[in-house]
Amino acid sequence: MCGKDDGAREGARQNPFAIGLVLLAAGVSVAMIQYKVPTILGDLMVRFSMDAETASWLMSAFTLTGVFVALPAGLLAQRFGAKNMMVAALGIALVGSGIGLAAGTSATLVASRAVEGAALTILTTCGPLVVRTCVDPDKVGTAMGIWGIWGCVGSTAAAVVTPTVFEAMGFAGVWVAFAAVAAVAAALVLVAVKMPAARAASSLTDGQLPEKSIAEDSIGASALRAHGRELLSRDVLLFLGGFSTFNICLLAVLAYVPTILQSQGVDPTLSGFISTAPMLLSVVSSPLFGALSDRAGRCKPLLVAACAVMGPCTFLLYTETGALLWAAVAVMGLVGMGGVGLFLSGFVKLLPRPEFASLGMGVMVMVQGIGQFLGTFLVQMLLGPDLGNVFFAGVALMGLGLLGTLLLVLCRLR
User: Fold this and answer.
1) Measured between alpha carbons, how far apart are the two ends of the chain, in Å?
2) DSSP code of 208?
3) Contact criterion met (CB below 8 Å) for 224 and 359
4) What does the domain layout of the chain look like in residue ranges?
5) 292-317: per-residue pLDDT in tens?
6) Under CATH, what is the fold of the domain 2-204+229-410?
7) Major facilitator superfamily (MFS) profile domain location, by residue (predicted)?
8) Which residues does residue 246 pair with via DSSP β-bridges, in sequence order?
9) Is the pLDDT of residue 281 over 60?
10) What does the pLDDT look like over 187-212, one tens digit per residue?
11) What is the rounded distance in angstroms from the CA atom of residue 116 to the CA atom of residue 405?
């Protein structure tokens, strides 16, 4: 099936930095679409006559979609090829942006966000599969470290750029500009990613063909029921539990810190920068953690450290405005965000069989979607109707972050 993706010679491997950067561009383009909302949420509420609860669905619908799309995305990657599905995902993002641009009601705008969310889910499911196929096994951590910062770079770019574009060109300008970035990214993936011609990403084992045929080793919905216990082992469940709390804290920062700071008189552009500065620092920490993991042959200590700081840093970002806030930004960025790529490479190591790659990645992205949905919907409930219960919400999020750390400690992962 990868023969459709590219005619590259069988067994060819690409530079991990080149693959990582191309996939990073694709991920950033859709992450910018995801995070174009928080810094102009107040303006959107006025434009579409939304209350706070309805407005929260502009982020929640985006993340909730991933819960339902992730597993089918893995199966589609297995059927049509991971690269092809990444390009399709970017096309879906364009469709969603078009619906949003034409929206005349809040319901239509929320629906467009769900379409855009489906695009992100497919993209994030397929990206690691492309890395696994195109990069040498001992360089996967490096490529994943680069790819893994897509959300961080995209959210930062959106937080900084959106207020300026909105002020200059209005609602339509934001939606059109960010869609144009996605279109460019689609062309880049189509041209630059060279898939091995032998088979789909999901069917390859470190670049070598398994002995069984595609029909024999493909994992579908019926196989999920048959092999669910094998795939969802104790260690996988512990790992996914830690991963979900990581995402709850991350989205709680990205979605609500701008609004919390703006309610205290902070400039919208500065509030957006503060909320996404940790993700900007991940440009350094995530590739570094990936390289350290490759060199040491272990990722658990780094993952535990990353997860351990997420809860306390989220609490400080919710409750502080001075030096402690900036300290939390630095620690979350340099330590917490170092784990974004390691979660991907660490999960692959836990899979019991290589042919579970596509389905397993679908499960992981589904859990990510649940965590991100809770990071918007649940946190909005914790904050209250006026988003004023910041101390209570901060304490709850700190507890969740520490619980996730404990789950990773108990996981038998190297």
Assistant:
1) 33
2) B
3) yes
4) 2-204+229-410
5) 888 888 889 999 999 999 999 999 99
6) Growth Hormone; Chain: A; (1.20.1250)
7) 15-413
8) none
9) yes
10) 999 998 887 764 443 444 333 333 33
11) 31
